Amino acid sequence: MEKIVDARGLACPQPVIKAKEALKGMEEGILKVLVDNEIAVQNVMKLGNYEGVSPVSEKKSEGEFEILFHVNRESGNMVEAAKEEECLPDARKKGLVAVLSSDQMGGGNEELGRILMKGFVYALTQLEELPETVLLYNGGARLSVEGSQSLEDLKSLEAQGVEILTCGTCLNFYELADKLKVGSVTNMYEIVEKMSGARLVIRP
Questions:
Q1: Which family does it belong to (predicted)?
Q2: C-alpha torsion sign, points 185, 186, 187, 188
């Protein structure tokens, strides 16, 4: 059996996510993943090593790479990962809080920062252990309102039980109080309470 995932032209982390989805349905065979840059090769190779599917990469031409995964569940590939998934009735990780304080990720180019943040929020939806709570304040408040490119991803998290909380003061400051489309409004006391009680806080 051979499967092909064409992830050329897709931004991070989509090549990894598409490869992971394809692996889940495979018992035995070869998964071929096509990407168009070396960073994607490295990320997909890491997935293959993590899943134990003997990844091999080859550069076909400029801007064209191929990664092969040799899948054989009978020999133990991915068995433990599959068992873990079956034992997780609730995908949320207790005490894990994601903090989004901007609608951009990192410093530098603003357009790139927004692209990276969109990718970060999407990646949150694909974690095997989701955060218990997502806190949005300052510029991060723009992510949960009408017109946000991350709105559907935040709605997906909420549908899986993740608490989405946006700073009310921030919404008022940016005149967005009537445009909140996911989760609920929070205050600084609750933000501090959630962060101080967290076992792990992640932020882009």
A1: Belongs to the sulfur carrier protein TusA family.
A2: negative
